Amino acid sequence: MKNLFKKLILNSYGRYFNTLVLFSKRKSAITTFQVFSKVRKGRVLPSQKKYLDAVKDTTLRIEDHDIQTYKWNGTKDRILLVHGWESNTFRWRNLVEKLTAENYEVIAFDAPGHGYSSGSNLHLPLYTECIQKIIETYSPKHIIAHSFGGMAILFNDYLYQNDGIEKMVTIGSPSEFRELLDHYQKLIGFNNRVLKAFENYVYERFQKNVDDFSSSKFVLSNQKEGLLLHDQLDVLAPFHASEKVHADWKNSKFIKTKGFGHSMHQPELNDQIIAFLKSEPIKTDFT
């Protein structure tokens, strides 16, 4: 019954967009984009509060949002952690434990609409600008990102090429905005007239076509050392996304897993990430 109700709600969005576009393409596009970028989960849960409150650092004003940052002190290289869609900094707790045991200094933050940060919507350019401000504020040496966060850090490097960043890690990350949009269209059920209006709005707002938002294109000019991790059975971000990015990222390594899921919290994977940061040999096949 719950799934049926959810399907009816999604279909009602599609019918609304299909009707609205007949009267105003622009209004239809804006509304479709707002629904697409709406964050529905990822706020701090009661079970997460104690952990996060203990490591709060400061709040930064970025792109009209109050962004909550976190810090774990250490004497070695500074690491920036970037979470994914509808998540928050709590998702890093297992990796943070290993990083701090190695005496790395760790920085993290909640994206707009997530965790303790303000807002209710998130899109790739906004996340990228938040990452840039965090980089300028904290000067990390390496960046580790999960899911949508991985796409954001690669777009950030494409735009800014921050020289202080040496190594980048993406975990279970999508690559193509086009694929995300195709999934959204099928999920909601809006027609190609709405899709075209959406694409035109994206170009008008960001001066880029939908197909330009592509991690496999972003990394063509990326000179940093990269590590990608992805599970072959990932149902949220397709495995082929990281395969393609790895093929186009000249200085990257790729860890393949099977049955590890999308979150990839496993200790053995965190060990490989730390080995990569330390320039030690890594195991690349967990299938």
Automatic annotation (TrEMBL):
Residues 78-226 form the AB hydrolase-1 domain. One of its GO terms (molecular function) is hydrolase activity. It comes from the Bacteria. It holds the Pfam family Abhydrolase_1. Keywords: Hydrolase. This is Alpha/beta hydrolase. It comes from Euzebyella marina.
